[in-house]
Amino acid sequence: xxxxxxxxxxxxxxxxxxxxxxxxxxxxxxxxxxxxxxxxxxxxxxxxxxxxxxxxxxxxxxxxxxxxxxxxxxxxxxxxxxxxxxxxxxxxxxxxxxxxxxxxxxxxxxxxxxxxxxxxxxxxxxxxxxxxxxxxxxxxxxx
Amino acid sequence: xxxxxxxxxxxxxxxxxxxxxxxxxxxxxxxxxxxxxxxxxxxxxxxxxxxxxxxxxxxxxxxxxxxxxxxxxxxxxxxxxxxxxxxxxxxxxxxxxxxxxxxxxxxxxxxxxxxxxxxxxxxxxxxxxxxxxxxxxxxxxxx
Lengths: 143, 143
Fold this sequence. Notes:
- The structure is a homodimer.
- The first copy, chain A, is of the alpha+beta class.
- Chain A has a single domain (3-127), classed as Nuclear Transport Factor 2, Chain: A (Roll), CATH 3.10.450.50.
- In chain A, 26% of the residues lie in helices and 36% in strands.
- Chain A has helices at 3-8, 11-23, 27-32, 53-64, and strands spanning 41-43, 49-51, 71-81, 84-93, 102-113, 116-128.
- A six-stranded mixed beta sheet of chain A has the order 2-1-6-5-4-3.
- In chain A, a hairpin with an 8-residue loop joins strand 4 (84-93) and strand 5.
- Chains A and B meet through strand 3, strand 4, strand 5 and strand 6 of A and strand 3, strand 4, strand 5 and strand 6 of B.
């Protein structure tokens, strides 16, 4: 993604760039999306908490060494103000025709920084069963 | 906690009130700490995502019907701006003398609203092993 998009992009653009960097196993692109703040936190499903750029980068490097992760974020719920966007998504991973017995829920928090919107928190965890499909209320805004 | 504290309290005060309400199994006090926003999200360890006041309240009511939860939030890492505070804590639960085989990591996100600081996101998940004890760097600020 061009650098101008990263500076002027919305939280949604940063989220798209994040899952795109994972799919391409592009560690540098991935780490550039995080805020320049040592209190950033990343929690992978079923794993211990990682704090700061060095810890977070080392674990992603390990994960991405075996190839890209193809994840589609779905069923977004978002709360925001001028400086913050708090996203909750279901991370959809292709299971072929099999019915998965768990799904992954992720919290992604974006803060507006001097460099543009950046990730300060990624918290992913597993929940039992296939992801529930949310009913769309008639007349409701899709988002 | 008096209502004035809830209006003028900091994110730390709201977090303290949250774990206090859990300990007292006070459902009304607990729900009053959440933002008046239907996009609020609560994820309990190993459970599916709950969205909105009705879903979140119903599940807490069920959990608290068997008594209060005594949780001490520890090892806080926080990132914030004027309108937002993003907390990561280890939820310490008394295991007696037993070495626990899992621990709970929680993300709590607070936004500043017209009513004061309020919770918009609680995401708790389990990680393997006992909670790691973080080294405190000599001369570092404790927070």
